[in-house]
Specification:
Elements lengths: L1 H19 L7 E9 L5 E6 L7 E5 L4 E8 L5 E7 L6 H15 L8 E5 L5 E2 L17 H19 L3 E11 L5 E2 L2 H4 L4 H4 L9 E9 L4 E7 L17 H15 L11 E5 L6 E2 L4 E4 L20 E4 L5 H21 L3 E2 L4 E9 L4 E3 L2 E2 L5 E2 H5 E2 L2 E2 L13 H10 L4 H7 L4 E3 L14 E9 L2 E5 L3 E2 L1 H17 L7 E5 L8 E2 L2 H6 L2 H4 L7 H18 L37 E3 L4 E3 L3 E8 L13 E6 L5 E6 L5 E8 L3 E9 L7 E12 L5 E7 L3 E4 L2 H25 L2 H7 L11
Parallel strand pairs: 5-6, 11-12, 25-27, 26-28, 30-38
Antiparallel strand pairs: 1-4, 1-8, 2-3, 2-7, 3-34, 4-5, 8-10, 8-16, 9-13, 10-11, 14-15, 17-24, 18-19, 20-23, 21-22, 24-25, 29-31, 31-35, 32-33, 32-36, 34-35, 36-37, 36-38
């Protein structure tokens, strides 16, 4: 007997030793980190639609920075940072690099760090160093800028301190019914033989990388798919990460579990942007608001009016549309993630140069131009039409608008010829008062992680522009000795922002994207030349010139956004008092709406925290936070009334499967006194009950009935039916579902 016990013990010891050392071989070291970057939730113009009336008045989804550090066996590193932001800006990157250098030396520089935006149009603006992009936000907004810097640095720190051996798998699939071309007439101007190579006028391909540790346990995911984050339209006033941000939360919840709050889990999923320049999520397409009929195909107008042509769908409102497009991206990414088996192998590498895009010569008399915005830029898109009766597809100018824009800067004849056929509305490249309006020197970069090659572009490339760029990079790599088959990906809106890039043929149509291609008709060709040179240098192991340094304009920034002066609670009120209490009871699936005496959210952005909580009362009496303002199920609305009084409305849409029990809603309030000090106070509702919905009760009753039937059948089959029936006097009692 002792020998048997000893043998069993020896086997157990060997099993423990074997299990503890049974890591699989890994190709890379990977660090992953996530952090909050949410900007001011009140009074700041949202970046994207350039609608001055669209200022933040609350929060629906928090914005996050998701950082991935990839290191090969030779300790070569690249850093990919995906932001729930409209784009990235040159001034921000200069500041991030300064702070990274101060903290980590030369480990992370502008050369091997790529920072990209998902392109949500529902995040606070004012974070650019070039004037044009900050005009509607009343200039530079320090609060937005600081939120981004603090959150990005925090996510990098977490990734840096979390490096571990890992393998990376890649998979590509096709996602349908999630994007359409919003400028199809321009796309049709591309050569027929080129269009014939593709099944669709937008890219439907999604590429996913799955990151797994040395135990083959998944720790992260990045997806690239081309679609605008404009599911939330230009009437939205709540900060939102839109469809890509919600898809990321869905994926992270799937991996981390429902009890883990957003941004707090170990697994991190990034839904990154690609060549989405002409790609809309509003899959019902553009229709006229007055008639419901399709808009004019070439100009996106209704009876000649641009403002009446708007694209919708696929949902009944912008919230439902956001959820649908997010879920479709999440489902496809999960499928590709779960079936990814192709292992990335090979070095981590990068090439980077600054490029003066305003001075590129291309031969045959072709060249790029100083930046300029066309008339169709002011028309907006079918995702968010502009004002003042501009139209897309405009190749002629207006005498009155020429007169108005001439007050700012009349373009030179050389500039007019260079930008033709674009009629110039704003000659931004030839204006330097009070400082530069748009960039001339931009950030161009290429990454390699094994076979995967990220082409980090500082602009919004249209579908065909991205296809041509990918093909050129792949050919350049293979022609110059790249081993294996490269997998080129356009990483859009990276490191900088220089508006749009169309093909030469699309530019002739002067749709919105063409009017916003700021360096003229040969912009794409110039970019392709740059990325061919970078990919050649990467394949041959040679270096590239650093290029001209961009200007640092941060000390020149101006702002006209007034600060928060003070808050008032109103006569007889205290801050965070409940002004509209909840009902005593709700069914799962219903909406809870409560109101509090509020204060300006700009007093405290609550990074890594929350303005609200939904709490559940455990049987022990302890309170557990089950939702925050980062959850899709909650909404935080702020409304000013009077000079300094405000009301906060908190909404909780109770999920249909919410656990029955007692809940309360808490508001975290930060109010500013007339003397400038900020104080914090918390207010909570009374506890209210959530009961199962009728549908849930019916489902439980059916489940209970099936359980009892199976139980009876099992008893009868056992041959002891009569005996067991005596032991179960009330066979219909079943489960307690009260």
């Amino acid at each position: 007997m002792a020998m048997v016990v000893t043998s069993c013990y020896l086997i157990l010891v060997l099993f423990v030793i074997f299990s503890s050392t049974n890591g699989i071989p890994t190709e890379y070291n990977v660090g992953i980190g996530i952090a909050d970057i949410t900007g001011p939730a009140a009074e700041v113009n949202m970046m994207g639609y350039a609608n001055p009336a669209q200022t933040s008045r609350g929060l629906h989804l928090r914005q996050f920075s998701r950082t991935f550090i990839f290191e090969d066996q030779m300790k070569n590193k690249v850093v990919f940072i995906n932001l729930d932001a409209c784009m990235f800006s040159q001034g921000l990157k200069l500041e991030i690099v300064r702070q990274l250098t101060a903290k980590y030396g030369d480990a992370y520089t502008e050369r091997n760090v790529c920072i990209t935006g998902t392109h949500t149009h529902s995040g606070p603006g004012g974070f650019h160093q070039y004037l044009l992009y900050d005009i509607t936000s009343l200039g530079f907004v320090r609060e937005t800028f600081d939120s981004l810097v603090e959150g990005i640095m925090r996510s990098v720190d977490r990734a840096h301190n979390n490096m571990k051996p890992a393998n990376i798998y890649v998979n590509t699939g096709e996602l349908l019914e999630s994007n359409i071309n919003r400028s199809p007439s321009a796309y049709l101007n591309n050569p027929p033989e080129e269009r014939a190579k593709y099944n669709y006028n937008v890219d439907k391909n999604m590429t996913v990388i799955k990151i797994a540790d040395s135990d083959d346990y998944p720790i992260g995911m990045i997806s690239w798919f081309a679609v605008h984050c404009t599911s939330m339209n230009n009437t939205n006033r709540l900060i939102s990460s839109d469809n890509k941000g919600l898809a990321a939360l869905m994926f992270e919840t799937d991996r981390n579990g429902k009890t883990v709050l957003p941004g707090k889990g170990d697994f991190v999923a990034a839904f990154a942007q690609s060549n989405e320049g002409d790609v809309s999520p509003n899959t019902k397409g553009p229709h006229c608001l007055d008639t419901g009929l399709p808009c004019d195909f070439n100009h996106s107008t209704c009876n000649g009016r641009n403002e009446l042509c708007v694209a919708f769908g696929p949902g009944n409102d912008m919230f439902e549309s956001t959820e649908i497009i997010a879920r479709r991206q999440y489902i496809e990414a999960k499928k590709l993630f779960d079936t990814a088996t192709t292992l990335l192998k090979g070095p981590v590498d990068f090439r980077h140069t600054y490029t003066d895009m305003s001075k590129q010569t291309l031969g045959e008399g072709k060249k790029t131009c100083p930046p300029a915005m066309g008339y169709s830029f002011a028309a907006g898109t079918t995702d968010g039409p502009g004002a003042f009766d501009f139209t897309q597809g405009t190749n002629s100018s207006s005498a009155i608008w020429n007169f108005v824009s001439g007050f700012i800067k009349k373009p030179s004849e050389e500039q007019v010829q260079c930008q033709a056929p674009k009629p110039i509305l704003l000659d931004t490249g030839e204006i330097d008062l009070p400082y530069a309006w748009e960039p001339s020197v931009v950030d161009t970069q290429i990454f390699r992680i094994g076979q995967l090659v990220l082409v980090a572009v500082p602009a919004e490339f249209t579908t065909m522009s991205g296809r041509r760029t990918r093909a050129a990079v792949a050919k350049s790599l293979k022609d110059n000795g790249f081993e294996g088959e490269p997998i080129p990906i356009i990483a859009g809106l990276s490191n900088d922002y220089a508006d749009y890039v169309t093909t030469f043929e699309e530019y002739q149509e002067q749709r919105y994207e063409g009017g916003s291609t700021i360096y003229g008709p040969h912009t794409l060709e110039a970019y392709i030349n740059v990325y061919k040179n970078l990919s050649k240098a990467m394949a041959t192991g040679s270096s590239v010139a650093l290029g001209p340094n961009p200007p640092d304009l941060m000390l020149k920034q101006i702002s006209f956004l007034p600060p928060v002066v003070f808050d008032e609670a109103g006569i007889g009120n205290n801050f965070a008092d409940v002004s509209q209490p909840p009902n005593k009871q709700y069914k799962a699936g219903e909406r809870v709406t409560v109101k509090f005496v509020g204060a300006n959210p700009r007093n405290n952005r609550r990074l890594e925290s929350t303005f609200l909580t939904v709490e559940f009362q455990e049987q022990s009496g302890a309170d557990t936070v089950v939702y925050t303002d980062a959850n899709w199920e909650t909404q935080f609305h702020w409304d000013r009334h009077g000079l300094a009084e405000s009301t906060v409305t908190i909404i909780w849409d109770i999920p249909a499967d919410q656990k029955p029990g007692m809940y309360k809603i808490t508001y975290n309030c930060d109010h500013k006194s007339i003397f400038g000090g900020v104080s914090s106070v918390t207010g909570s509702t009374e506890w209210f009950q959530v009961i199962a919905s009728k549908a849930k009760l019916d489902k439980l009753r059916l489940k209970n009935k099936m359980f009892q039937k199976k139980k009876e059948n099992d008893i009868q089959k056992s041959g002891f039916g009569k005996l067991f029936s005596k032991l179960i006097p009330n066979k219909n009692k079943g489960l307690n579902i009260a």
